[in-house]
Amino acid sequence: MNRHYYVSDDLDDLERVEQELEAKGIDTEQIHVLSEQDAELERHRLHSVPSVMKTDMVRSGTRGLLIGVPLAILVLVVAHFGGWTNTTFGWIPFIFLALVLFGFSIWEGGFLGIQKNNRYFGPLQDRLQQGKHVFFVDVEPDQETLLEQVIRHHPKLEVAGIGTAMPHWIMSGEKKWHHFKNKL
Known about the structure:
Blueprint: E1 2-8, H1 11-23, E2 31-34, H2 38-43, H3 57-81, H4 92-113, H5 125-129, E3 133-139, H6 144-152, E4 158-164, H7 168-183
Antiparallel strand pairs: 1-3, 1-4, 2-3
Helix pairs in contact: 3-4
């Protein structure tokens, strides 16, 4: 999948683009609008970027996970080969310590990441600060022509580049969440 970025200052036009894309068969979960004007986005029928995705929390939390797993394993290996598990308490304190280190590493990674903007949106940050909106669409290769057909009819959209799309497992989870939420 590819992610196509566009910049615009007209939310009404972006709303029409989103409706046209959905009518052509592109799922709502593939379409997002990033803006610093959240109140304006609320007034339009647009699929905005979740606040957690505006930050680098997921990527940093993953880094914390990659640090936490070896730390937890190290604690268990040292406890085993150090003979510390042959006490009355056995493995319990070391398993607990391993879990605490593992959880703390993920938490700390996420905490550091929530303080940073998502690295994918970094190059577009200056346009967001100018009051513009970033519209992006994740498309499969067979949907590229549908996207081009719709975009061609909206000259206000400024092409801002192409990048890596959201992983399928995240998009699938988002689709399931919206389906579940709509049933309530």
